[in-house]
Amino acid sequence: MAAVEYVLDAMAQNRRGLVAMVGGLTAEQLAWRPGPEANQIGFMAWHLFRFEDDFVHARLGGGLPVWERDGWSVKWPQRPRPENTSPLWPTGNSWTPREVSEFQAPPLEEVLAYGQAEREAAVAIIKTLDDTSLDQPVNPNNPQANKGLVLRVITLHEAEHHGHIEMLLGMMRAVGVR
Amino acid sequence: MELRDFLADCFAFTYQRVVTSTKDLTPTQLHWQPALTENHAAFLAFHVFRVYDRYFHRFLSPQGELWERNKWSMFFTVPTTPPDATVFWSTGRTWTPQEVASFRAPLNRLLAYGDSVYQSGLRKLATLDMNNLERPISFPAEQLTPRIVLHRMVAHSAQHAGQLEYLKGLMKQQGVA
Q1: Closest Cα of chain B to A10: distance in Å?
Q2: Domain span including residue B50
Q3: What's the start-to-end Cα distance of chain A, in Å?
Q4: Which of A3, A160, A171 comes nearest B35 by C-beta?
Q5: How many CB atoms sit inside 10 A of residue A61's CB?
Q6: Residue B42: what pLDDT?
């Protein structure tokens, strides 16, 4: 089995699990936080899709992220990226607790539609890779960073946030958030 | 990069995240639960390592789980096996909140068990036939193949590594020392 084939399979399974977990949540559940510095599920779902979209297009090529290509950035305008932050900041990466608390999630069905669109684009790009190409560097300043690393990040990042969301769902059940 | 190298990289990354999230915890932090129904860090790390052990040493090779072969259970306070326990129970799967709450692990033993399982698992991975990942694995409770097992191990450990980091963040916010 090729590594790329495995990654595509893992991505599909991860995404099915994510949609099943968040698909039926209420607005209150999507916005609930166990503490003032904790991330809410609505933010995490949006962040997962935004991260994959920007990261795959930036690191593996393929033109504009779906966020910009399909006009989502106009529909859901964001504040400008603060100085001295990562290029991935617009995806919700490394946001402060205050930034997370001020985040207004778009309606869930629109977030999921964006997620589906960005995923289709990401899969199309990843399908152009083969196992040999995974050793190619993606950052001239860091020879350790290759396309294989990008695929590892994509695979594990979504699974890690599954863990967060699962834990939040358990805590909400315990305190009766509906 | 072949699949074997990709998987080894995934395992290394998630294993290190689990270790990094637990290695400096105090006994109180190790067993702190954000809600009575939620898992504590000691249980989460134990569960990740037990699942590695079962999958690497029972499903992907016939040598048997290190937990049993090396009698690791003597170092941990493990709840009594319920009479209706399934084969999954000994990995921590399907434990009740009460069973999770009663589980106690000394940090040094927990990390030693994890290291033992991880190092041995990598050796198994190095010899696994990557061209034969669709063969059925003999396990009556579930239909498994090496491909399914490998995917589950990676996703499962990453999910729980994520929970450990979230838990650590909650402890910091709530001043659990």
Answers
A1: 6
A2: 3-174
A3: 43
A4: A171
A5: 12
A6: 98
ipTM of the prediction: 0.92
pLDDT tens track for A89-125: 999 999 998 999 999 889 999 999 999 999 999 999 9
Quote the pLDDT of residue B146: 96
pLDDT averages per 10-residue partition of chain A, 178 residues: 95 96 95 90 97 96 93 91 92 92 92 98 97 92 90 96 93 91
CATH code of B128's domain: 1.20.120.450
Give pLDDT tens digits for A15-29: 999 999 999 999 999
Residue A137 phi, psi dihedral angles, 5° rounding: -70, 150
Query: DSSP letters of B29-44?
Result: HHT--SSTTSPPHHHH
Show the low-confidence residues of chain B (pLDDT under 50): none
Structural domains of chain A ordered from first start: 3-175 (1.20.120.450)
What confidence tens digit (pLDDT) does each residue in B90-111 have? 999 999 999 999 999 999 999 9
Nearest to A167 among B13, B14, B38 (CB): B38
d(Cα B61, Cα B103) in Å, to the nearest integer? 28
A42/B60 Cα distance (integer angstroms): 38
How many domains would you assign to chain B?
1
Q: Which residue has the tokens 């090396």?
A: B70
Contact (Cβ atoms closer than 8 angstroms) between residue A83 and residue A178:
no
Q: Do A164 and B6 touch (CB under 8 A)?
A: no
A143 and A137 Cβ atoms separated by less than 8 Å: yes
Which residues have CB under 8 Å from B93's CB, separation 6+? B47, B51
Residue with the two structure tokens 């999507």? A30
